[in-house]
Amino acid sequence: MHRPSAAQAVDCPSCGSSLDVDERFPAWCPGCEWNLSPAAGPAPHRTPRQQRGHLRAARRRAAREALVRARVEKLYESLTEDPARRHDANWFGAAAIAGAVHLLTLAVFTGSVLLVCDDRWPVRVLGVIGVVVAVLLRPRLGRVRNDANALRRDEAPALYALADRVAAAVGGKPVDVIRVTGAFNASFGRLGLLRRSELTLGLQLWTVLTPQQRVALLGHEFGHGVNGDSRRGLWLDSALRTLSTLHTMLLPDRRGSQRGAMVLFALVAGVAQGLVCRLIRVVLRLLHRLTSRSGQRAEYRADILAAELASTEAARGMLETLLLEQSVQTVRLRLRATPRPRRTGGSGTQPPAVDFWTTLAEQVADVPPLERERLRRLSARDLGAVDVSHPPTHLRMQLLDQRPKGLPSLELGDAETTAIEAELAPARKRLAAALLG
Length: 437
Ligand SMILES: [Zn+2]
Ligand SMILES: [Zn+2]
Prior knowledge:
The chain is of the alpha+beta class. It has helices spanning 48-81, 89-116, 121-136, 157-170, 203-207, 211-226, 234-250, 261-310, 312-322, 325-337, 352-365, 369-381, 393-401, 414-436, and strands at 8-11, 18-21, 150-151, 177-181, 186-191, 196-202.
């Protein structure tokens, strides 16, 4: 672990207050937010015309961001006022649109089957094409993958036992499959016709969390299984996939290789395809807008479940860690760039995989509170830039800050933590090699 040799004291160039500067991180002022987001470099040279275009684009972006900001803040307020509300009018609208999409698929299929049964062969050909289209548009269910990343229950009994405890505590069912990846995230989903549950744990995130924050992470993910998150439901999810497939299939071909009469035909077909595509995009955007509200609501609710389970403090710590993704990537890239001694037989040199996870955990734990605060405020300032399906992390933290502190209802003991770590060791070795490769 390396601490700064000396914290330099300098004055803020903007407000003059004294700043503690850690040379490993950008200097910034918590008082006036000077240098909260350090500029990437000098602005590129632009002609007056380019400059005007740049300003116009910036204004449009700002207006868009202001809209998103207003929307997420309104949702946050409505949630804090009425946390129990599950489905709003938006949700019913989205479900109705999804229903129309499924009906359309069904109609294409039934109509095409009728055409196939016709006596005239051109009609039959049309019917076959229709059936193919209907098959392509079928509701997609996803499937549980049994690859190297999937852990069996007998391979990781302690991890599954913890997952089962968490699932039971939030009122869910035991998970069917746990997968571990090298990512800095985690997710929970239901797949296939049997709706088997799959928990995915990204080891970069898991590693930099404290044991109790890991409980909070599991609480959040299993919370998704019980909080009525409509985006994850078969009805909406499959409709979104159907529309996306249709959009990809219909995108007009702009290569323009046709000749003679075909040019006119291609032109008409292209215009028709373009119109249908535009309509699909409008519907997709609408569905996204309608479901993102319930999706954000679901995220907040999962956070509350996590806090009830692992303690508000642990859940908040887990969220704060989510802001450290960039720091984690920096550590990883630095380690990847570091020349490693070649392993010669029995030389005793540690393989890089062993060092990687330890170094990652140490260096991320070493990120000082001032840098964490900078990242939190950056999340607050860049509110408008966030993906609308995820609430901004600082609002998720704010929601937890309003909760009583309280004690955890599920605690992860040392023996359990050690057992889980031992079970994850083979995956760690494999994934570190890939991450540093
Ligand atoms: Zn200042
Ligand atoms: Zn979530």
